[in-house]
Amino acid sequence: MAHSNESTVSEFVLLGLSNSWGLQLVLFTIFSVIYVTSVLGNIMIIVIIFSDSHLNSPMYFLLSNLSFIDICQSNFATPKMLVDFFVEHKTISFEGCMAQIFLLHSFVGSEMMLLVAMGYDRFVAICKPLHYNLIMNRRVCIIFVSISWAVGILHSVSHLAFTVNLPFCGPNEVDSFFCDLPLVIKLACMDTYRMEILTLANSGMISLSCFLALIISYTVILITVRNRSSASMAKARSTLTAHITVVVLFFGPCIFIYAWPFNGYSVDKVLAVFYTIFTPILNPLIYTLRNKEVKAAMSKLRGRYLKPGQVFAFIRNVLFL
Hints:
Layout: E1 11-14, H1 21-51, H2 58-75, H3 78-84, E2 91-93, H4 94-127, H5 132-135, H6 138-163, E3 173-174, H7 181-185, H8 193-225, H9 230-259, H10 265-278, H11 282-288, H12 292-305, H13 308-319
Parallel strand pairs: 1-3
Antiparallel strand pairs: 1-2
Helix pairs in contact: 1-2, 1-11, 1-12, 2-4, 4-6, 4-8, 4-9, 6-8, 8-9, 9-10, 9-11
């Protein structure tokens, strides 16, 4: 790689979240439960949406792609963090560190754009219901998903292009449980002021622009439906509450970290935990558990494959095999 002639650092040391063995065991238990729940929950959403013909709509197509991104985001750093709880000397190779930076910004950038697409979908559904099927067809949804991945990857490559060639000659300690861009840039053996500005301009602006676009679209939706019937207003508010909750909880930590990328690392570490571990579980908890159609499809799927008689027969066969 290009760094080989300029850098004497071949690996980075991850300081993790705590040096206390007792606290690490507690965090391992909590994060393991959240990780497994998040992955299984998002897999369940994808299976339910693609197995039920009643969920064959643009909104659920975008929701299934959001679940896929959340599965990817759950796996780029969390499994290593869980293993590192039992390792005294937590290290990651230079290549592994760059890979984590690339994957993180690819998934986060893609999810930002996908949330914007979902916001547009709700705007068309509520403000222009008669033209919804014409505007939001499967081809448009595929274009939205493709654009979200393209933006995420380009956003990540733009970061990695200058990070991978920075001179790293020590120290090599990253004060987190994974390689995040601001923390790694800080370790470069050079003046990183321009790098900080680039990070702010790239990550900060994409976060703020997507967040403002969503807030504006939701405001327009509420203004549009305020003169409609109370039932329509209640339905719109219920839908938007779920979307706004996810948007605020997802964008809040990202904007805070990348709008002020080199300030309070203790706060940044807590926020990093939030958007890498807790964010992927928002989709199953907020979108799915509040959605009557998804819950009905879940009950139908459970009734089809997990009938009580079949379950009892399976347990009996296992016990007396």
